[in-house]
Structure formats: structure tokens, C-alpha cells
Amino acid sequence: MSFRVHLLMALAVLTICLASATDALAQGHIIRGKVRNSAGVNITQITVSLESGNGGLINQTVTNNEGDFSFSGLSDTSYLVTVSAPDFIPASERVEFVRNIGPGDPGEIRSVEITLVRKDVRVPRAGLRFVQDVPEAALKAFDVGVKLIRGGRAQDGQRAIEQAVSLFPDYFDARFLLAGELIKLGRLDEAIKQLNEAQRINPKDDRVWSAFGTVLARQHKYAVAARVFAEAAKLNPLDPQHHLMRATVLVDHASTIDAAKSKDTATEREQTLLLAEESLKRVSALSNGKLSAAHLQLARLYERKGERTRAADQLEEYLSLNPDAKNAGAIRDAIKKLRSKQ
Question: Judging by beta carbons within 10 Å of its beta carbon (0-12, 13-18, 19+), is residue 152 exposed, middle or buried?
């Protein structure tokens, strides 16, 4: 099967717990964040919305006196955090997790920082925005679909999005949204077709490549997923999440390689972990060390290399950045297990 065909099979990635400590970690994904203005001042008591990767409203909260907020007990892989406040331009950040989890499964933690800019301040856009001249009928059908999905009527919303696609087959946003809805339903083959069309229409959108990569990761095709996330990173090199996703699937891939089988497999495993470590260094550089999930991935990496002290050190570094993490007790237990085996 060609690499191109492989690419058409893929949405988020990041297993952040040690294999030896999986049972101990907390349940549900967690998103933690802070909101500031362009002067660096924390913004308090403003609304923060959590949406699904396809725009459906899931929950809302407000920032505390330090500008902090959090959402917990999450189970899907893709979310959008949106912040709105009077006199400020609304801002949003996409958050991706490695995998869907069940009610009793250990979760992952993502941290985001959002800066709000006043409406009267002009901010230069980074890169070029993909713009389409969409026929009015297709646009209306799309808007109806989005509203239905956000209102909890996903099936009706999907039909409206499909109508938008039938009216305008090259409708990128509709294709991408429809793919996301199909992924949520586990209809991956149909989702791949929509992602393929979205990529044909707009081949430079890193989100499409990320979506492909995530589907591949779900299918445990980690090596191909790593190449796909690398392509996403080329298109948007300043987004640390793409590098983090690539590192995660590389560690997963290394876990499937039997190093004892031969010298070649031992070398392959070593090189795979080295690539993962390089990607995590890139994450640290791009995020100024603020993306704490990188420490959890480094812990996984070092544990697989048999470097238990370094793995424990990374977990301690994570806790220093997230002292109030809900799974802090479980991670401390994991640290004790790692250090006890020295």
C-alpha cells in the first residue's frame, strides 16, 4: 500500500502515563488553562467555553481570580477552548489528546495559555487564511448543520452538512466538519474519504494531516502516523502539539519493536526513541517549556529505555509545573515505583 493511501487513514495523539503506572493515574482527560490580556495581566471572571472538535458546545466555566480555568472528566480526543469577553476579540485554542478513553480509564492533562487582544487593536495574521467563495445555499445548509450539532442534534446536523457538500462539493469546512462527525461515530473509512477530499481542496491545512495521523494512531499504525504528524509540523512548524503527537506515536511504535529479536530491531527501536526525544526537545523550545505534557512523554520514553531515574525526574518536573494536578498522588506513586527499582 502506497504512503499516499496510508495517509488517507487518520485525529489526536498523546498517551501521557507510564505503562508501569497506567492503573494508578486519574480518570478522564483534563484541560487546564490561563487567560491573560496582551499586557500579561490575568483576566478574571470571563466565560470559557469547551467545544467538541467539530464545534458542539460541551461545557462552560469562568476564570478565577488568577485567570485560571479547567475542564475535567473528558473522554474524546479533540476539543476547542474558546474565550470571549466584552471589548476583546474572541480567541480559541485547539486541544488534542492521544485517544478516546472509557469512564474508568486514566486520562491525560493538557495546559493552554490564551491571550486576549482588545477589539480596537489590530493584530497581523500569521500566514494566509484559506478563503472560499461558497454559494449562499451551501453556506446556509452548513450554518444550519453547525447549529444543530452544537444543539446536540448531531444526526440532523450531519445531514445538513452533507447537503452543503452536495450543493458545493469543494466546500472545505463542510468536508472537514463532516469527517470529524464520522470519526466520532467510528465510521473511519467514510471519514477518510472526506478528509481526502478536504486535503485535495486545501492541501496546506495542517489540521487535516493531524486528523489523518490521529486515525492512524487509533489503528495502531504508529510508524505511518509519525510521518503524517511530521508533515503537519512542516505545514505549521510553530505548533508544538504536532511535534508532541509525533513524539507520542514514536514512543508507541518503539514499544511494539522487539529489540531482542535481532541487532536490526534493536537499532530500529533505539533510533525511534531518539527521534521521539528530538521531537520533545522541539516541543520544549516552541512552548518555552510550558507544555507540561512533554515531561510525561519523556517519562514514558526514558522508562522504555530502562532509564528509570530519568523517568522519575521527568514526572517530578511535571508535578512541579502542575502541583494541583488531580492525578498528583498517582504520579507520586509511579515515581516511588520507578525509584524503588534502581
Answer: exposed
315 and 229, same structural domain? yes
Beta carbons within 8 Å of 126's beta carbon, 6+ residues apart: 238
Question: What confidence tens digit (pLDDT) does each residue in 91-143 have?
Answer: 788 888 877 776 566 778 888 888 877 655 443 334 446 788 899 999 999 99
Neighbour tally for 22: CB within 10 Å: 13
Identify which of 65, 72, 71 has the alpha carbon closest to the alpha carbon of residue 45: 65
Last residue in a domain, options 161, 182, 202 = 202
Range of the domain at 189: 135-202
**What pLDDT, in 10s, does the model give residues 285-334?**
888 877 888 888 999 999 999 999 999 999 998 888 878 777 788 889 88
The tally of domains found in the chain comes to 2
Name all contacts of 216-219 with Cβ < 8 Å and 24+ positions apart: 216/6, 216/9, 216/10, 216/249, 217/10, 217/12, 217/13, 217/98, 217/99, 217/245, 217/248, 217/249, 217/252, 218/99, 218/100, 218/188, 219/9, 219/188
State pTM to two decimals: 0.61
Phi, psi of 26 (to 5 degrees): -70, 165
